[in-house]
Design brief:
The complex is a heterodimer of chains A (about 270) and B (about 260). With about 270 residues, chain A is of the alpha+beta class. Chain A contains six helices and twelve strands. In chain A, the strands form three sheets. Chain A has a five-stranded antiparallel sheet with strand order 10-1-2-11-12, covered by helices on one side. Chain A has a five-stranded antiparallel sheet with strand order 5-6-7-8-9, covered by helices on one side. Chain A has a two-stranded antiparallel sheet with strand order 3-4. Helix content of chain B is about 40%, strand content about 20%. Classes of the chains: A alpha+beta (about 270), B alpha+beta (about 260). Chains A and B meet through helix 1 and helix 2 of A and strand 3, helix 2 and helix 3 of B.
Amino acid sequence: MERSPVAFDQNFSGAVGDFSVLLRRKGLLAPAAANPVPQGGTPQKMWQPTEATTILAFKFSGGVLVAGDRRATAGNTVVYDRADKVLEIDRHSIMAIAGVPATAWEMARVLEHSFQYFRRTQLQEMSVDGKVRALSKLLRDNFGFVMQGVGVVVPIFATYDSHPKPEARLYFYDAMGAQFEATDYAATGSGSPAVRGILFYENNWGAKPLQELGEDEAVSIALRALDTASQSDTATGGVDRGGKIYPLIKIVSRDGITTLPESKIAAVFKETVA
Amino acid sequence: MIEEPYRWVEAIANRREYIEAQLAPGSPIAALGYRDGILFLTVSQSRQKIFEVYDRIAMGAIGHPGDIERLRMAAIELASTEGFTRSAADVSLRRLVHYSLSPVMKNAFEQVYGAPYLARMLFAEVGERPEEDLFLRVEYDGEIATNGATYAQARQDFAALSGTQQSREQMEALLATEHAQDANLETVLNSALDAWSIGHMTLQTDDAKEPPERAAVRKHRQEQLTNAGIEAALLERDASRAIRYRSLSDKELRPLIRD
């Protein structure tokens, strides 16, 4: 990108609305990965989805609940049992990640700074559509690495929109950056098939639809779903009863983001799951 | 011609005179450090003059809107890239101003064939404790004035910015007696409004050696507030949140005014 003509100094430039463009221009962010060119004769290795984790999110009466297990794996080795995969991006937005942590955390960092940079330079909050699209673009830029077999990230994005009417919004993505708005729930990661089954069942034939659940009921379903996923998926930590490690649960509501304290999760777990 | 030293000095002097004349009508801005943070305040007729720069940094400016915008963008860009590559705690107002903004402004000012920045800015960075608050005023020629930070002179918990030096000095004199660090928001707001009023009055009178009467300042303040709105922002000291900047609306502040 060309430097603005008003620049007197390399530290100076005109207004750039997009933070990742600014970072690339300054050489602080890796360039968008190019798709690998197939070598003549050698068939290209098929991309294997390896988002080893379970993330789920659903709307309930108090906003959107986002939950993630705590296990991080490399192949069949558990490397960390307190990983934080549910990340706060701003006061009303959460990005929950399944995939390669290095890439995912970098994306979250770029995203967090992008939203703030936009608000500060443009003097208004970025719209929800703009935020959703910003994440989509980061995924698209990363797709070359995905095709090379490294750096796949499949996130969920939850936020609270105040325009045109106040409501919780929930999006899930594929590795290429396509965004889908979820009406009721979304799940991603290797343990997600089981979770999707449970959430579908609860939403249609459970005691009440997900959107009508109270906070404790919602937490209980999230814990049960993650525990179910961990039964068949080795990459999902579920609830570690011995080590007393609980999933991370955050709620996005009109007032902002609440991280549920471990004591509260433990209490719901003891009463309704264990 | 400009190559001759005398011509250059003359050209710079002319340019200084021109810029001072351009900035002279600029409405004052006051920044006051207190127990819970730093309050930025002006009474504005039209354009926004107080801005968020980074998590703990805010700025106020008078001058040409185009120049202010370029400098504001540059400050945000520098702080954001620093905060991204390292951490928010590594973004320092001192370095931002001394290392990046001041040399560029000085350079533009002294390149007599190019355009200088028609802007005068006031930056503040909120600290963990009131003693750590930093105020920096940057002039169009890159000159920097501080609130005394860590040096010999007595520290000031406030800073003022105005169109003329005389106006700014009246504001500073008032704040030196009226403002106390342990005040609450209501008291600080009223001190800031007084400072703004005395600064604004001084701008309108050419050769007022004596500061205006207290009653006259209050009267001026009341008159101005009937037509114009209060523009204000806080840098909160509360460490539970990363982003300390919060703009305050006129509606929120009116009930706190003591006449």
